[in-house]
Specification:
This protein is mainly β and 279 residues long. It has two helices and 20 strands. The protein has a single domain, classed as Porin (Beta Barrel), CATH 2.40.160.
Amino acid sequence: MKSIVALLLMIFVHRIAVAQYYYKDIIVAKQLADKWKMYKKNRVKSVKLSSFEPGNQPTEGFICEQNVTPDFTQITTHTKSTYTPEDFLFSYYTTDGLLKKTLDTSDRYQTTTEYTYDNNGKITTILNTSSSAADQVKDVEQHVWQYDATGKATGMLKIKNNNDTTFIRFVIDEKGNIIEEHPVRNRINLPVIYYYYDENNRLTDVVRYNKQADRLLPDYVFEYNSEGLLGSMLTVSAGSNNYQKWIYQYTENGLQATEICFNKQKQMLGKIEYEYSFR
């Protein structure tokens, strides 16, 4: 079966295909920085991921391994399965744990993403360059982030291939949280993204208006455990009311132990288990 591998790929594609620029650029980058800190704190040397289908059967041909350099400035992720091409993801970090660059490559494509920061560690630009080996098409997309005097994000420019610009304006609440994302392209207002938070200012929902349902519906719903770690993530399939819910479990030292995926009918679709080695 290929269900869990396909789900992982679908969620990744969904994340990069839709707007949600604040979540995609800022929140995900912070999550990666937090994960880097946890790796360094526990002196992680390598990670092996095992994938299981419904019935707890191993996913056919699935391989996923991470290797961390001794200075923690590079994490290499190697992925392969019977149903997906072999892939290498090279992630480069500063000594403070800020993501500098990623290189995602296979025999079919290559994508490079480069990050720059201001003196306060806030992202100023993200430059994404992707190319396909099959048709040699090259796409370049740059995100230019803007902040006010207090360091709150006020806007972002998405510039695609140097000739297509989308303007994004953010609305901030009294606590300093971004609650609305307003994109405009070619003077046309695009769908607004809404962000909701709990009493601890943790992101709980990413929401947009659904024309078919004629109401606001979530793209993501997040819940947290008693230690403040992400306990679950619900993702809604674009253009439908189907969803998958990922449940996360952790080791005593805060490292991710398992991910279990369920569908809307609460049937288990698959599971990922993590095995660590330490320095």
